[in-house]
# Entry
Amino acid sequence: MKVALVGAGKRGLLHLQAYRACREVEIVGVCDLVRERAEALASGFSARPYTMLSDMLTKEKIDIVSICTAGAEGGSHHFAPMHLCHEAGKHVLCETPLSNHLVEAQEMVQRAQERGLYLGMAFCQRFSPLAQKAREWIMEGRLGQLLLVNAAVWADVPQDRTEWHHLRAHHSESFDLLRYFCGEVVKAHSFCNRSFQKGCTEERTTWSNLQVNLLFNSGVVGHLTASCDGNPRLEESRFEVMGTQGRLVLQNYGESLCFYPREGDEVQIFSKALRVEAQEQAIYNRVRRFVTQVYQGVPLRELEANGEDALAAQEILEAISASWEGDSIQEITL
# Structure
């Protein structure tokens, strides 16, 4: 299968490294608005550089395009390239979030479905080996009936591009992982605050600290604490799921996983790898799975981490911002 990349930044590099490890994949093109960036990245993968996506789509035979452009809140530069890819009949693996506008996200998903094209999301956390082990425990009933989920995500992110930059740019994937473990969210309620900018007394633009309460369709109640004013060096993330028969804790994006039984003292501990290695493995697993499912021709709705999952995560993000701005509990329509 022939693949190409749009957006020659850090995430684009990680996508290409993952594709290169897939034996049945050939990387044919790299597109970026900055020619020097496209040329530098393309040269490392024996691909041809482009500055115009339309040229790359016309001149190259391509099956899959990875869209790793950025933009405000991480997703505002996805709509235009995805439109061109869909018009050209290409399958897309998109970085998160899908968009920072819900209407645009809905249109992208609908267009892919109407054209019979795969739209996959780089929700890489759910593809880490230990996140999949945690999901296996949940599905086989090892935790019993699920009751609670608590998550905490710490980051030190100085960017203050928009009021909701922290939420939209960084937590689409957090809520995807919560959905992966506990199902659909039906209500959300949030509180937020801002810290001061580093080195001065002015408040940050973005809501840099979030406390989010969630109700799942299954009856599970949950919570997310998130900060971009934190120190992630010791603990970057923690996802804890509790049921009637036990509790699991997944730390640092798949670095470690523990199971604590409700009865007995035998704690089961898995330590997969160093944090960076765990993250790299998750990205490779996600790309590998997308390539495999496209090659196998699975039904569109059976594609793992698909556009519908992206929409569900974005609906939660929109509910959180509306909750804080309106001082209300927001219902999410399934």
The chain has two domains: 2-124+285-306, 125-273+312-331. Residues 275-296 form the longest helix (22 residues). The two ends are 35 Å apart (CA to CA).
